[in-house]
């Protein structure tokens, strides 16, 4: 197999952090907050590395669109087994449409045979970049993947849907977006973290790609959701049922 | 302004989330609807729908032909709307890609024709965003818009040929058979977590669900451990529910789980750990062993 797998990864606020809305309502506090690779992207990296280990792919290339510091998630991905990395450098925050334009340029330059990415970034929760990218490339898409198999120039994708699981078969090249149960990502071992430091990391200035990265959405404000008040503790199931009937009037 | 709503029909009935999408879309002006596969009759009966585009040949909601077809029709519309369901989230962002617009997912409030509120960071913040695109492509959360009735309308029906699917082929689908109400539209939801310990114990939720006509949900940990199938997962990356009553059994209430249920009207938590974060959002809490509480609860109902 000569197929190259491209894995876009995003640096996001760690999933354990409960974010706070900035006092001026312009966004959320990210100063001094722990950042990590988007968990769905770890799953995508793991899947790509497994495809290479199984011989279904030749090379795993990770790419991120972000500031210089976003390099750390590329190093993590290489410690997990990706072969090389591309940082498309920008200090702006891009929307999925713009990210897709950048990724399309990189996928075309790299002649990627498969793009394996997260279904959703846990900061903006858009769940959109993969689908937009697939449309722009004119490739088929296998979203919310819980299993993939490659055979005879096609990829079969099991997808988590509202009522159960669906299987689709796509021609390659294709875009696959990873759901939680696609795999359990490995931890990077210390020797692999050391090795990853020597793997190639190329920096591309975003302007050199000549793609449209304008935003179509303006953030008017960001607000805290209404907090729920902590309720009361009851001592027995009987008391609970009583309260649900007479106080909450819900049953 | 006219909006086009992608309507999902299941077993001959329009899904509640799609009826909510029709209600949301009517805020923009006139509403047309489009339905893929069977179900034109049910969709044409939705109140407020003027015209129905029926594509009987496009079965199984394959995103590629569906998005192609929507893109070909898009210029007639100011807004293209779907429920924030697996189908809506698969097809609409692809359509947005074809139209080169930025989609607006998971809308919970419509401020005006261009301005929308959507949750970010697992619902820990609400962003109000204004779109500069000429065609707005959005998915809406069913729980935030009261659905239109299932009947009462009489849309004119235009039947459309399905485009060739080409690069994608449907292989099969495995749907879980269940007589229970749908998670997203149930009045009562009872969810179990890792605290239930195994798949056999998970069934302890059933008698209570039967008594309350409730849907059954699960935490990610319960799904990952094989206690429940994936379509039962409630949370940031599972289903978003806002029932009248949500009963959380043996689940801790991680941020990602709360994202899927904290808009429920009344929340009940049963957990041995008084410090479990689920109690922070619960109206009524029982600190206790679920294996003792569940049987007594069943009897008390
Ligand atoms: C408070 C707030 C204010 C904002 N303000 C602005 C603003 O003023 N202007 C603006 O343009 N945007 C703004 N944004 C949006 C920006 O932060 C989001 O990154 C953007 O909308 C992308 O959404 P997503 O990452 O949720 O995409 P998703 O579609 O959920 O991402 C899916 C997948 O796409 C891939 N991916 C996504 N982004 C990248 C990336 N950068 N590099 C590599 N792969 C990637 C990953 O594989 C990821 O798993 C704002 C967001 C917030 C929360
Ligand atoms: C990217 C990402 C996305 C995620 N998306 C989701 C999502 O959509 N939905 C989701 O739910 N999670 C999601 N998670 C996982 C989430 O972070 C938690 O790990 C998960 O919700 C924990 O499940 P749990 O509460 O069942 O398990 P635990 O946290 O292990 O809690 C079990 C609880 O059971 C209680 N318990 C134990 N024994 C008993 C007993 N005998 N009687 C009563 N109580 C008992 C314990 O006190 C404990 O509070 C996501 C995580 C990530 C990283």
TrEMBL record, chain B:
<dbReference type="Pfam" id="PF00766">
    <property type="entry name" value="ETF_alpha"/>
</dbReference>
<dbReference type="GO" id="GO:0009055">
    <property type="term" value="F:electron transfer activity"/>
</dbReference>
<keyword id="KW-0285">Flavoprotein</keyword>
<dbReference type="GO" id="GO:0033539">
    <property type="term" value="P:fatty acid beta-oxidation using acyl-CoA dehydrogenase"/>
</dbReference>
<feature type="binding site">
    <location>
        <begin position="219"/>
        <end position="220"/>
    </location>
    <ligand>
        <name>FAD</name>
    </ligand>
</feature>
<dbReference type="InterPro" id="IPR014729">
    <property type="entry name" value="Rossmann-like_a/b/a_fold"/>
</dbReference>
<feature type="binding site">
    <location>
        <position position="271"/>
    </location>
    <ligand>
        <name>FAD</name>
    </ligand>
</feature>
<feature type="domain" description="Electron transfer flavoprotein alpha/beta-subunit N-terminal">
    <location>
        <begin position="3"/>
        <end position="174"/>
    </location>
</feature>
<protein>
    <recommendedName>
        <fullName>Electron transfer flavoprotein subunit alpha</fullName>
    </recommendedName>
</protein>
<keyword id="KW-0813">Transport</keyword>
<feature type="binding site">
    <location>
        <begin position="233"/>
        <end position="237"/>
    </location>
    <ligand>
        <name>FAD</name>
    </ligand>
</feature>
<dbReference type="Pfam" id="PF01012">
    <property type="entry name" value="ETF"/>
</dbReference>
<dbReference type="InterPro" id="IPR014730">
    <property type="entry name" value="ETF_a/b_N"/>
</dbReference>
<keyword id="KW-0274">FAD</keyword>
<comment type="similarity">
    <text>Belongs to the ETF alpha-subunit/FixB family.</text>
</comment>
<dbReference type="InterPro" id="IPR033947">
    <property type="entry name" value="ETF_alpha_N"/>
</dbReference>
<dbReference type="InterPro" id="IPR014731">
    <property type="entry name" value="ETF_asu_C"/>
</dbReference>
<comment type="function">
    <text>The electron transfer flavoprotein serves as a specific electron acceptor for other dehydrogenases. It transfers the electrons to the main respiratory chain via ETF-ubiquinone oxidoreductase (ETF dehydrogenase).</text>
</comment>
<dbReference type="InterPro" id="IPR029035">
    <property type="entry name" value="DHS-like_NAD/FAD-binding_dom"/>
</dbReference>
<feature type="binding site">
    <location>
        <begin position="250"/>
        <end position="257"/>
    </location>
    <ligand>
        <name>FAD</name>
    </ligand>
</feature>
<dbReference type="InterPro" id="IPR001308">
    <property type="entry name" value="ETF_a/FixB"/>
</dbReference>
<keyword id="KW-0249">Electron transport</keyword>
<dbReference type="GO" id="GO:0050660">
    <property type="term" value="F:flavin adenine dinucleotide binding"/>
</dbReference>
């Amino acid at each position: 197999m000569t197929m190259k797998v491209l894995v876009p990864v995003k640096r996001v606020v760690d999933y354990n952090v409960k974010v706070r809305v900035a006092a001026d309502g312009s966004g959320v506090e990210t100063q001094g907050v722990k950042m990590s690779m988007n968990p769905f992207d770890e799953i995508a990296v793991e899947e790509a590395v497994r495809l290479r280990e199984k011989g279904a792919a030749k090379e795993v290339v990770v790419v991120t669109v972000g500031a210089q510091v976003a390099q750390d998630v590329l190093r993590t991905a290489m410690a997990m087994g990706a072969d090389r990395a591309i940082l498309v450098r920008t200090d702006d925050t891009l929307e999925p449409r713009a990210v897709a334009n950048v990724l399309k340029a990189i996928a075309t330059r790299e002649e990627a045979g498969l793009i394996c990415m997260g279904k959703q970034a846990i900061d903006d929760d858009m769940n959109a970049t993969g689908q937009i990218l697939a449309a722009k490339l004119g490739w088929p898409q296998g979203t919310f993947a819980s299993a993939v198999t490659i055979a005879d120039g096609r990829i079969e994708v099991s997808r988590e849907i509202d009522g159960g699981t669906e299987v689709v078969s796509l021609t390659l090249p294709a875009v696959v977006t990873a759901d939680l149960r696609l795999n359990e990502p490995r931890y990077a071992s210390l020797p692999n973290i050391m090795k990853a430091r020597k793997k190639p990391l190329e920096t591309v200035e975003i302007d050199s790609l000549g793609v449209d990265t304008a935003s179509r959405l303006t953030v008017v404000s960001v607000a805290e959701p209404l907090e729920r008040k902590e309720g009361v503790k009851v001592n027995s199931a009987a008391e609970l049922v009583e309260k649900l009937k007479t106080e909450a009037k819900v049953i | 302004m006219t909006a086009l709503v992608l309507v999902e029909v299941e077993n001959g009935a329009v899904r509640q989330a799609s009826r909510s999408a029709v209600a949301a879309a009517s805020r923009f002006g006139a509403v047309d609807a489009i339905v893929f596969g069977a179900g034109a009759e049910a969709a044409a009966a939705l109140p407020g729908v003027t015209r129905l585009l029926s594509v009987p040949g496009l079965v199984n909601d394959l995103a590629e032909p569906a998005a192609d077809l929507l893109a070909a029709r898009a210029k007639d519309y100011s807004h293209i709307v779907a429920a924030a369901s697996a189908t809506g989230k698969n097809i609409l962002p692809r359509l947005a890609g074809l139209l080169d617009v930025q989609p607006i997912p998971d809308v919970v409030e419509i401020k005006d024709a261009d301005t929308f509120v959507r949750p970010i960071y697992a619902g820990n913040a609400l962003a109000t965003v204004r779109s500069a695109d000429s065609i707005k492509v959005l998915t809406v959360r069913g729980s935030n818009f009261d659905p239109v009735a299932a009947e009462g309308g009489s849309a004119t029906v235009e039947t459309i040929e399905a485009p060739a699917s080409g690069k994608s082929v449907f292989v099969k689908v495995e749907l879980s058979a269940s007589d229970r109400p749908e998670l997203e539209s149930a009045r009562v939801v009872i969810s179990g977590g890792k605290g239930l310990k195994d798949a056999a114990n998970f069934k302890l939720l059933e008698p209570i669900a039967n008594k309350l006509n409730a849907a059954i949900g699960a935490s990610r940990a319960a799904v990952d451990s094989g206690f429940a199938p994936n379509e039962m997962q409630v949370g940031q990356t599972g289903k978003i529910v806002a029932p009248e009553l949500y009963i959380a059994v043996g689940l801790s209430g991680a941020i990602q789980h709360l994202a899927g249920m904290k808009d429920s009207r009344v929340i009940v938590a049963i957990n041995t750990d008084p410090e479990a974060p689920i109690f922070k959002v619960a109206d009524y809490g029982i600190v206790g062993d679920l294996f003792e509480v569940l049987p007594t609860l069943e009897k008390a109902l």
